[in-house]
Queue: 2 jobs
Job 1
Amino acid sequence: MRGLDVFSLELDGLCVSYGKVPVLHDVSLKVTKGQVVTIIGANGAGKSTVMKVVMGLHKATSGSVRLFGKDVLGKSPDQLTPLGMTLVPEGRRLFAPMTVRENLEMGAYRRTSAPEVQADFEKVLEFFPDLKPKLDLTAGSLSGGQQQMVAVARALMTSPKVMLLDEPTIGLAPAVVDVIAGVIRQVSNDGVDVLLVEQNAEMALEISDYGYVLEQGRIVLEAPASELASNPEVQKAYLGI
Ligand SMILES: Nc1ncnc2c1ncn2[C@@H]1O[C@H](COP(=O)(O)OP(=O)(O)OP(=O)(O)O)[C@@H](O)[C@H]1O
């Protein structure tokens, strides 16, 4: 019933190159309001490139990106954050010498309402109680799993309406993967729309409402996540079944 849905994020006909090498070909996808949408695909399929272009970190050759119906292609991350978009980048990109608290404050640095920032600070610590005793430690001293929690928490401190997550569970222990997956669902229930890029297709399809399969820079399949999870080709290529 996607025809009747309201979309928060719409990519249409995106073509992207690195130098002269084309890596995305006519990529179109939509994030429905109230949903978690995932892009699954192999190494090098172009998943991170989609995220970088949407977040204004790399230019597209052609196509469009609309956020709540407004064309935002070419805007910088600094312009997109106040419009409600945030990215949890691959590799976390924390400020390693700064404390966990300072990293979280950096997420909120543009916001002006101290009570709202404080409420979100308390909320992210409810999402990630493991971070409570670590607030005054440097981010770089934390385990990989805790650092990923800080990266997600920092993104939430921007008060996003749409959150992009690029491989948030890569290299993490199963227990931490469960925590991150649970928070993504809760965040979605709280009204943040999510675009999730994952190599862990099993987890991604489990927590997502809708999914796209990206192969060699092209969307080759799209369907509700439960349908993708039971598609024999997807099972063979991405779920190891
Ligand atoms: N900065 C860059 N310069 C040149 N080529 C790049 C650059 N970044 C990525 N590529 C190439 O673009 C293609 C898509 O890469 P991208 O990182 O978007 O894929 P991915 O699906 O996210 O893969 P991974 O899961 O390994 O991160 C790959 O062939 C990659 O080698």
Job 2
Amino acid sequence: MSSSDVFHLGLTHSDLKGATLAIIPGDPQRVEKIAALMENPVHLASHREFTTWRAEISGNPVIICSTGIGGPSTSIAVEELSQLGIRTFLRVGTTGAIQSYIQVGDVLITTAAVRLDGASLHFAPVEYPAVADFDCTSALVGAAKHHRTKFHMGVTASSDTFYPGQERYDTYSGRVLNRLKGSMQEWQSLGVMNYEMESATLLTMCATQGLRAGMVAGVIVNRTLQETPDARSMQLAESVAVNIVVDAARRLII
Ligand SMILES: O=P(O)(O)O[C@H]1O[C@H](CO)[C@@H](O)[C@H]1O
Ligand SMILES: O=c1cc[nH]c(=O)[nH]1
């Protein structure tokens, strides 16, 4: 067997020890924190944006692997983890809420994503819905209720860009294309809860290939009030979402 069985992640089949569930945050620095909430955490590899640890829940192996930001790198992580035997993916992210009733620190569980990405089009035509798996979503809901966390379920807008695609104007150019002006208001009026950047790719890939995927995110900014998150809100929201995803993994495994 070679030192790595897949192109990017730097992992072998034996590294996974038969794990079939992966927790996939965007941020590589979140991986160790998630692993630390389980038993016997071990660092496996770090390449590019992909940092991978293995840990255990009641003796069952779980993989934690960062996807980096956006659909293209997420598609690589999900593809290569699937080649290695993963069949269930739980994404844990941070997010910007666009509805005024959602507060910083709340948790959002995505039931489906608006496909504002490019990568998901390489897996299914745009008419195909990016839907979450029912069992994964139920496990996330059960975990959020157990932790007495304020959570909301619904549709997420999943954009390739953090700035124009999420209609942010506080940029170098201050420019947003005409076709994206008013887009946040349109998503609000359609009941969309939030923006993030990976769920469209993840949910489309998994729904079309017989894989299971769920998605939870901590709210770090409310876009009806401001465009930029602050550091304290990021830490708080991340830690709430991370505890929920580990509990959800436990519910799916045991
Ligand atoms: O906190 P993560 O999981 O990276 O998720 C969100 O944060 C990043 C943008 O800052 C994007 O990846 C977005 O989806
Ligand atoms: O506003 C936000 C916050 C986090 N992640 C995003 O993609 N958008």
